[in-house]
Amino acid sequence: MEKVEKRLNGGVYVCPGPNWTGPCQHINMANLPGDFPGCWTMPWQTLGSIGPDAGWICSMFVEPGNCDGSNPFNLNSGGIVTPGVADLRFFSRAGKPQDYWFHNARTVQCIPS
């Protein structure tokens, strides 16, 4: 009998507007194409709210489609855990001023914590 591996299930709830205003999406990070952990490119001009599922930790990056933090220009927000950040306009991380991540986040990557 073939051994079946249990797939991870979890990810992040994201909204383009602050305070969970939508249209919002839940992204199952285990189901993204490519190697795990996947890199989700947001379809919006702003990222207003981000809420990782319990047991997951997420980071935001500034380059679309790139969650590799080795490039010094592809800034990494650092880890965000549950309950997340309801209003990224007032979030300051990685030496950047408030609202930087609201306007500049382009990709999100989450892993089990």
Provide structural commentary.
By secondary structure, the chain is mainly beta. The chain is about 5% helix and about 25% strand. The chain has one helix spanning about 100-105; strands at about 10-15, 25-30, 40, 50, 55-60, 105-110. The strands form 2 sheets. A 3-stranded antiparallel beta sheet has the order 2-1-4, with no helix packed on it. A 3-stranded antiparallel beta sheet has the order 3-6-5, with no helix packed on it.
What attributes does this structure have?
globular; mainly beta; three-stranded antiparallel sheet
Q: Unreliable segments (pLDDT under 50, ≥5 consecutive)?
A: none
The strand count comes to: 6
How much of the sequence lies in strands comes to 15-25%
Main sheet makeup: 3 strands, antiparallel
Mean pLDDT: 89
Q: For the largest beta sheet, what order do the strands appear in spatially?
A: 2-1-4
Order of helices and strands: EEEEEHE
Shape: globular
**DSSP helical segment count:** 1
* Helix proportion: under 10%
SS content category = mainly beta
Q: End-to-end span in angstroms? A: 32 Å
What gyration radius follows from the Cα positions, in whole Å?
A: 14 Å
